[in-house]
Amino acid sequence: MAEVASAKMAGAAPISWFALAFLYAPIAVVLVFSFNASPIVTEWQGFTFDWYKQAFQDEALRDAALNSLIVCGGAMIFSTAIALMVALAMRRRDELPRPARHATLWLMTLPLLIPEIVIAIATMSFFSIIGLK
Q: How far apart are CA 106 and CA 83, in angstroms?
């Protein structure tokens, strides 16, 4: 079965690798140039850790990084718990009553819908602020 799928998708692997390289190349360039001794990005003057030393000596930056890690950890635990509950509910989908099936489907699709809702509310607020009806 895998041979049939790969025969239908001939050329997909090189395109996928190119897409990944295209997406990750800017990150790699920024990472390489973050070790540049020169304050000008386009001019390489050698390898240094000075920029990282300066960044880690800034207390406000350390506090911001710690806050980001705390929020990240909380979001990770919360989203994993929700995903586990939804996965267990969907595994026993046939045993659930109809309203519970709809609730689990709603919980699964909610993260896909929230960005559009936020954009719609922001657009509506903007238009009402400028007086457009």
A: 13
